[in-house]
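Dear support,

I submitted the protein below through the web form. The confirmation email said the job was done, but the results page showed an empty box. After a refresh the structure appeared. I'm attaching both so you can tell me whether what I see now is the final result or a partial one.
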Amino acid sequence: MNKMKKLLSLLILISPIIYKAQGFQVNLQGQAQQAMGGAGAALIQDGAAVFFNPGGMSFLKDNSINLGITPVISHGAFLESNTNASAITQSPVGTPFAGYAVWGADSSQKALSRFKFGLGAYTPFGSTIKWQDGWSGRVFLTQIQLFAVYIQPTISYKINDKWGIGGGFVYASGKVNLQQDIPTASQTSYYGHATIGGNATGYGFNGGLYYKPFSKLSIGLTYRSQVNMDVKKGAATFTVPSSLAADFPNGSFTSSLPLPQVATLGFAYKVNDKLALAFDASFVGWQAYKSITFKFADTTAQLHNTTLVRNYQNAYSFRLGGQYKILNNLYGRLGVSYLISPVKNGYVTPDIPDGNRLNVMAGLGYSVGKHFVANASFTFEDITRKGDNSLSIVPLPGQTIHPLSGTYKVFIYAPGLSVTYKF
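What the results page shows now:
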């Protein structure tokens, strides 16, 4: 009880940390959808259908351009079980973004246009964390930056007034930067420092099916494939005492990080002309993230190829939201989501101290004339995860590294804004 009081008192002094999804998945691809708990597979509202359901994109009546951003402030706290040592993060502000363009509607015969073409650029995965200097978990992580930008050209076809189908090719470009301290036996400095970073690319696809059996009900089914992000020539830099420089040579490395597949089934129901409800259930194939290996071009007796064991498990998420037409040009939105963590006990690491969580969202949508729409959302979330990383440790020969055990506490505040131009 005293440990938790100490942790909570520490949190009063800091800002929140952001993990807006399971693992390092980021669900910030559309402001209207975010405000409704992230549900968007069956309720087609704007160009974000490029991401949420390409099959429903063909049911949009207008050509449009949509740009949005969700600034997030990232800080958190950790309380070690055995020593009561505490630490906080000092992470920079994150800026997940999403941009979409949809066209193919004939301005004079929009209802007859069956093909729609779309282009999306968005950030579905990412994590940025920087722990304070000298914290007790420094040999596992001092800083991590991971993000992936998906570029997705998309085509959608409206088969008839009930069915739509669509899909897109995904080109992923990203970056990874991992930093940690190195325990050494030097008399001049007990800790060295390692920085491992590089650019990564990958390929994938997504597809969607949209079905509207009658005017009030719509159903969406979507699939986003796994994308393997390959780092072909990263840079490994080691800062160690001169007496150990030969043991830790700077050089290049290769690695690969799997970004999981996601399958979603969604339902939307228009209760009346003012109220619409939406629900999504998703399966996320996190089991693909068993480990990540860094293969160094130059190895020594002290510097071996390094494997970070994760053994994530497949996970599920559930999202529920409502939209109410307050005025002819003003919408209010509320939503909740429940996300089950893919991180198993024994694999709770400071890069992703993830846990099951309940999110609460809200937002507004406002139309300005016939061409402009502004959407705003706000997300609140808190996470408590107690555990250790004892099963994830793979020490190098001669190393003795003790597991990191304790409680992570996370708060989240994520405001977002987007602007849509319809033509």
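Response: this is the final, complete result; the empty box was a page-load delay. Helices lie at 2-11, 31-34, 49-52.
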